[in-house]
Design a protein that fits this description.
about 55% helix; disordered C terminus
């Protein structure tokens, strides 16, 4: 699915319509950052200097406006996924990319919850974000699984739901800035392939991932994920 905004008409907007669209998008981005994605649409329209009817002509509903606001982050995430597609350590690349999703989802309160809901709702405008993210993540996951470093029974849908859940948990625990990194690391420790889950000996993992483990991913955003951990996950 193309990474377009909610406007699908081939005809370009008139200059005045484009100005209104840009002002609405700018005000929505600022309002979502300050108040969360449940910010008043009436206030966004007023601050943009237009009526609520103009807002709805450009963005039929709240998810359509959220989709437009998230496009810049979406483009960044898709670009990063392509850069990581040839990384020497496929597992580390997957972890880094999932961490980037947590970072971007945390920029606007309520976005993580909305992305989780959109994954099961094909009618939501946010599906335009979820679908390309799913496709990009599936390619990184398949490469990590092919290397033998990630369990074969892991799905990208589960990973994205877990990632959004971590972003949501971090959003609700703002007094603990390291929470998201710790939860991401704990979750991904359970993905590591072993003789019982990978269908092949653990020694078949790529040497880079085998040496680095999930600790090879040294950052969540700009902060460390946490203290070093064991290469092998703890016994159940």
């Amino acid at each position: 699915m193309a990474m377009s905004t909610v406007r699908t008409a081939a005809r370009p907007m008139r200059a005045d319509a484009r100005r209104n669209y840009d002002r609405l998008l700018s005000e929505a981005r600022a309002s979502f950052a300050e108040h969360g994605t449940d910010a008043s649409l009436e206030d966004i329209a007023r601050h943009a200097g237009v009526g609520i009817g103009t807002l709805y002509r450009h963005f039929p509903n709240r998810h359509a406006l959220m989709n437009a606001v998230f496009q810049e982050a979406l483009t960044s995430l898709l670009t990063r996924s392509r850069e990581l597609a040839e990384a020497e350590q496929p597992c580390t690349a997957l972890v880094e990319w999932l961490g980037a999703i947590v970072t971007h989802a945390g920029e606007y309160r309520g976005l993580a919850q909305a992305l989780m809901s959109a994954s099961g709702d094909e009618t939501s405008a946010l599906t335009q974000c979820h679908v390309p993210l799913r496709q990009a993540g599936a390619r990184l996951l398949a490469r990590a699984q092919s290397s033998g470093s990630v369990r074969a029974d892991v799905s990208i849908d589960d990973l994205l739901q877990l990632t959004n859940a971590i972003a949501l948990a971090a959003e609700q625990s703002s007094s603990d800035p390291g929470l998201a990194g710790r939860l991401l690391l704990l979750t991904l420790q359970g993905l590591k392939a072993g003789p019982a889950t990978s269908g092949q000996p653990a020694a078949s993992s790529s040497s880079g991932d085998r040496e680095a483990g999930y600790g090879g991913y040294g950052g969540y955003g700009a902060e460390p994920l946490g203290p070093p951990h064991r290469t092998e996950p703890p016994a159940p």
